[in-house]
């Protein structure tokens, strides 16, 4: 059997857009995500989409994600998030499906990954 990768030429495969939430403007140009193909949408005060803030000055995830999907014609989002963002998305009722990957070892906040 032929592999999917061998069957389709790379020019035929559409890579999904990467939406990056950078609330502290700490993205470095040397990150791997900037050297790979595909559209990147940066959500930051200096990015492609400016985050919407709530009354307390925190990012309003519902309004911000609505702006992203509307401006960039996105139908589905796959979110790779840490515990804080994942928890915020769940609390805001923005999660339809949850897939959890667990590492065999927990290292804590000081662990190197």
UniProtKB/TrEMBL annotation:
Keyword Transcription on entry: no
Key words, A-Z: Hydrolase, NADP, Oxidoreductase
Residue span, Bacterial bifunctional deaminase-reductase C-terminal domain: 9-112
Keyword Repeat found: no
Pathway: Cofactor biosynthesis; riboflavin biosynthesis
GO annotation (BP), single: riboflavin biosynthetic process
One GO MF term: 5-amino-6-(5-phosphoribosylamino)uracil reductase activity
Domain of life: Bacteria
Bilayer-spanning residue ranges: none
PANTHER family: 2,5-DIAMINO-6-RIBOSYLAMINO-4(3H)-PYRIMIDINONE 5'-PHOSPHATE REDUCTASE, DIHYDROFOLATE REDUCTASE FAMILY PROTEIN (AFU_ORTHOLOGUE AFUA_8G06820)
Name of the protein: Bifunctional diaminohydroxyphosphoribosylaminopyrimidine deaminase/5-amino-6-(5-phosphoribosylamino)uracil reductase
Underlying gene: ribD
